[in-house]
Design goal:
It is a single chain. The chain has about 400 residues and is α/β, with parallel strands linked by helices. A hairpin with a 2-residue loop joins strand 2 and strand 3. Helix 8 runs antiparallel to helix 10. The longest helix has about 35 residues. The chain is rod-shaped and about 150 Å long. About 5% of the residues have low confidence.
Amino acid sequence: MINAIANRFRQFMIGWKSQITYFYRGYGKKKSQRSPQQLIWLALVGGLITLLLVLSVVNPGIAQQPEPATKSFLVATRVIPPFVFADNGKLSGFSIELWRSIANKIGVQSKFVEYSTVPDLLAAVKDGKANAGIAAISITAERQENFDFSLPMFAGGLQIMVRPPEANSGGFSNILQLLFSATLLQVFGIALLLIVVAAHVIWLSERNHKEGIIDKSYFPGIFKACWWAAATLATQADEMPKGVLGRVIAIIWMFIGVLFVAYFTAAATTSLTVQQLQGDIRSVDDLPGKLVATTAGSTAAKYLRDRKISVLEVLKIEQAYDALQSKKADAVVFDAPVLLFYAANEGKGKVEVVGSVFREENYGIVLPNDSPYRKQINSALLSIREDGTYQSLYDKWFDVKKS
């Protein structure tokens, strides 16, 4: 600003050089004989100089001209298909091509710098390591406190991705999961204890009977008694004790067996029902009680935590996909366009996107606070929408891929 004021002052002084010289000479020769006309001219010159200085200070825009945007412009981004792809070090995707169109409009030579997570990307912009950031960055009130955002470049929101129904029902793996569930393991433990107790009672009552079904010696008599107790518990006994006490015990044991079979059936049915319900996720209302995978630091993670839903936070969205398919998570919640692209391409037949878009949000280009490029970028975005460039990019990376 000081240089601009100096330049303006020099320009002004060139026009008034002769007058100043005249006044200076007149002042030197006839110091005591200054005329009123000379004083008036000196006052006018001083007043104009003072006015120019005041205007330059009050309105610095007069002295400051926008610098031409010709220097290298660093843009932070992260791989998140279909917004950003990385293939052998070359970046492509909707966000990449959109930025290149904007860069051409505003006349900057840009260079992309990759980061692995959204928090890393935002930190790079905040710390001055990048002039801007673009990928699939949601505009939120919390982020707005620390950054400037462009006009919305994409309208999206969150959606749910789950395994297809056939992946959650039937199959040998589900049967094994049922057999080794905590509920059925408790049932088996109780049954084993009852069999051991009943076997010893029958052995004691039958060992001295001359026609008894149990051998007198503990071994192998106790093994035969255990077999009889287990078969009777399953309502499959093929012979009865001979002694009176043994038969009374057998009748009581058969009633216990009926109750046990009913309890076992109820427990198994409940476990299978729970497994089926866990796979029946169709909306946000079905998420409580489930383990949901998403990326750390994302708006999806915050949304789930705020609603007390169990969250499995991972660094990259690809890890969330793996957790879902390996049944380490019951669902994935993330940006709808990203999930739709994966379900229609790499995850086709393995996953499905369910329910409608919720928590609608806009994506924008993130900039440092008070960025001088914000107005230029917004103007370029509006121009790209008006001339059809934006629609062409959208059709290329979304409509075609989803179909």
